[in-house]
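Changelog note: in this version the structure field was regenerated for every chain. One regenerated record is shown below for reference.
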Amino acid sequence: MESENQNVSSLSMMEMAKLRSTWTGKNEQGYVRRDAALEKLLENRNAQNCGLSDLRGICLAGEDLSGIDFSRCDLSGADLSDAVLDNCKFVGAVLRESLLPRSSLDHCQWVNSDLRGTDFSECFGTKVGFGACQCQDSIFFGARLPEVTFSKSDLRETDFRTAVLSHGRICDARLQKANFAQADLQFLDLSQSNVNEAVFSGTDMRDAIFRGIRGFASAEWIGADIRQVDFCGAYLVRRHIVDENFMFEYRNQGGHYRILYFLWDLTSRCGRSMLRWSLCIALVAILFALLYNIVEIDYGPYPTRLSPLYFSIVTITTLGYGDVRPISSAAQTLVMLQVLIGYLGLGGMLSIFANKMARRAD
């Protein structure tokens, strides 16, 4: 299977190299195909259509292509690095694995376009629209796109690290595993988006809008600045982010805090899991039931196979019916130890229960 995947990848690279090489050749009129295509694009700068549909692999790096309508064009693998694409239209266009680093995109419109694997690193522009686009695995590293729109777009596993997306809209978008580390997301509207496993570490999210976002519990929020965020319709998000950052700071205070955090997370998911805590109490009860089999215990006139477990449960719940008695110092020591553990266990359970039952919008 691995060799098969490698063959597919190498074949794709060979096809791309072949496509790019065709633009360096000459057409029937003796003009270089790339230059002839560029001339036609510039002639149709303000027309409703650029007049070309297949521009796969073309190199237009550094060219001023502003105002050209590339709607329904196939620009897969094209090199548009450092190009000026201000006021261009890409309605229904295909730019899979194209190169647009450092390109200018002022008021550029991408609607229902296929941008999977496209490199937009360090591109810049205001009021750029990416409506209902497929942008999986795209790269927007260091991009400066204030007031950008990604509504209803597929942005899974997209790289937005250190990008500037302030005052933008990413509503009802798919952001699973997208990376926004160190990005500027001030005043960004994330309403109704799915952020499952997304990364928001160190992001500036002041005054952002989180109404109705989904999957926030599995996202990473360490170091996110959420001051003045509008949490209307997202109060659970606020509590989760605050909890995650508190626990991160707690375990990073020093060596013994890491150990305490490990035990805290293991036994109760940091005080949030009643199930884990109950399982821990049950395991302790079973352990002491096994230990009671090797010490001297008077189970009364009617002992059964369940007597050790019965005595362990009665002891850990601090009921103490008195019908079973430890008759050796070792047995008494075990009973005292289990009673202490039982008090702590039940106290912890009541704390978790009260925390879940109480109002959590503090």
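Spot check on this record: Residues 1-11 have pLDDT under 50 and may be disordered. The radius of gyration is 31 Å.
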